[in-house]
Amino acid sequence: MNLEIQELVNKGEMLPLMEEFYTIQGEGYFKGTAAYFVRIGGCDVGCHWCDVKESWNANLHPPTETDKIVANAKKYSDTIVVTGGEPLTWDMTLLTTKLKAEGLQTHIETSGAYKLTGVWDWICLSPKKMKLPTEEVYAEADELKMIIYNKDDFRFAEEQAAKVNKDCILYLQPEWSKRDKVVPEIVDYVMKNPKWKVSLQTHKYLNIP
Ligand code: SF4
């Protein structure tokens, strides 16, 4: 990436765009809702079970003008889900301001590991042990989505639930490769601790992106 382009990326005027697609939101509160996904490259959180490792290296994804991303997005849906990678690696202010100017709903899927930027109608916070969320994002999160890979993740989920705001909706979601083992544990846990709800990656069952 040359310096001029790097500067535009640093300002959020361009973003490393990995892919964009119109599909059904499979997870969490908006599951079943048609939405346009914008996947931004770049993440150094390093989850060993990450299912989008090809997103990690931002240099592999073309810097793309935010105007172009918005122009594409508005053709497909009123609901735009910005995901990654870790979108908060970058300044989301310009992208979201432009999406809002078009009357679109802005949703983000984030680990919360970096400064919260952007104007969001819905924040889905999915904390990771390796890089904990910032205090600000705990206060702003609309849903907390905890990925359950092993038993210790229930402890971590409770620790994180104690930090979010009181209106935040709490979800436990099986990590896909461990689903056969952890789904019965999650079901049992939610019945004993009904402040939690179960979230499934329904798009994977539907075989859609
Ligand atoms: S935060 Fe998300 S994109 Fe980054 S490594 Fe973890 S699961 Fe993958």
From TrEMBL:
Its EC number is 4.3.99.3. It comes from the Bacteria. It catalyses: 6-carboxy-5,6,7,8-tetrahydropterin + H(+) = 7-carboxy-7-carbaguanine + NH4(+). Pfam families: Radical_SAM. Catalyzes the complex heterocyclic radical-mediated conversion of 6-carboxy-5,6,7,8-tetrahydropterin (CPH4) to 7-carboxy-7-deazaguanine (CDG), a step common to the biosynthetic pathways of all 7-deazapurine-containing compounds. The keyword Magnesium applies. It is an enzyme of class 4 (lyase). Substrate binds at I24, Q25, G26, R39, T83, P209. Its cofactor is S-adenosyl-L-methionine; Mg(2+); [4Fe-4S] cluster. Residues 30-209 form the Radical SAM core domain. Pathway: Purine metabolism; 7-cyano-7-deazaguanine biosynthesis. Gene3D superfamilies: Aldolase class I (3.20.20.70). Belongs to the radical SAM superfamily. 7-carboxy-7-deazaguanine synthase family. [4Fe-4S] cluster binds at C43, C47, C50. This is 7-carboxy-7-deazaguanine synthase. GO terms for biological process: tRNA queuosine(34) biosynthetic process.
